[in-house]
Design a protein that fits this description.
Number of strands: 0
Shape: globular
Helix content: over 70%
Number of helices: 11
Radius of gyration: 19 Å
Order of helices and strands: HHHHHHHHHHH
């Protein structure tokens, strides 16, 4: 019985995801940002790494740049792209029309987010292989932690994008409303600056930021220096943020244009 119910839902979800992927492909600026920014930005942090004692944290240049690249993929391929997508579909009345059909609210949000999440996942895999082969990042010592971190980052960015879109009036203002999370995550979540290079007290506060647990799991999977207790704590913080984001989306997400 459950299989009979899930099959039509799966078909509807795939159809919506294909349509969203087609729209994404037609938006050249979004595609350029999603594909090139996560690849280019990590190289901007490399000069700053020369003055850091990375060995003390069990890191090397390749590992730091890999973590930065995956973090930038979370922010620009998934989060900022989806904020614009959700707002655009709402303002064009696409979401309102979809709700009049067979699709449920969860299916609409998942279908819209799926192409960006898949793009972020593909980028993470390509970046991982590239950094391992060409930047001497080394194979992950605990790949399950890295996989968990990537999954947590993708899901949380999609949920936070829907939440940010709830308070964004126009597509033009989407880049502005997304900036606070982007800047805070870049500086405090271990993306542009390794968490081990931050002062201890400041680092303990930054560990509670939305993307910090995902980045910590990704990095810890490569270094192998994340204990079971630390991994569980990171997973718990990520789950808490995801739960709060889902609750907020259910409460405040707008399906019709903001007037």
């Amino acid at each position: 019985m459950s299989a009979l119910v899930l099959a039509p839902a799966g078909r509807r979800l795939r159809a919506l995801a294909r349509a969203e992927l087609t729209l994404l492909g037609r938006n050249r600026s979004a595609v350029t940002t999603a594909l090139l920014v996560p690849l280019a930005l990590p190289f901007t942090v490399r000069p700053a790494l020369d003055g850091m004692d990375l060995q003390r944290s069990g890191l090397n240049t390749g590992t730091v740049m890999l973590t930065a690249a995956i973090g930038f993929s979370f922010l620009f391929s998934v989060y900022t792209g989806l904020v614009s997508a959700f707002v655009a579909r709402r303002e064009e009345l696409v979401l309102k029309r979809l709700r009049t059909g067979e699709l449920g609210d969860v299916e609409i949000l998942l279908g819209t987010a799926l192409p960006a999440a898949c793009l972020g996942l593909a980028q993470s895999l390509v970046l991982t292989f590239g950094c391992v082969l060409f930047l001497d990042a080394g194979a992950p010592r605990a790949p399950y932690l890295t996989a968990l971190g990537v999954l947590a980052g993708l899901v949380l960015c999609a949920a936070l994008a829907a939440l940010t879109a709830s308070f964004t009036r126009t597509v033009e203002s989407a880049q502005v409303t997304a900036l606070p999370l982007v800047f805070v995550s870049m500086l405090g979540s271990g993306i542009a600056i390794p968490a081990g290079a931050l002062p201890d007290r400041f680092a303990s506060v930054c560990a509670l930021l939305p993307l910090s647990p995902a980045i910590r799991l990704v990095s810890g999977g490569f270094t192998g220096r994340l204990s079971a207790a630390e991994a569980l704590a990171s997973a718990a913080v990520a789950l808490a943020w995801l739960t709060a984001a889902v609750f907020a989306v259910r409460r405040w997400f707008r399906w019709e244009p903001r007037r």
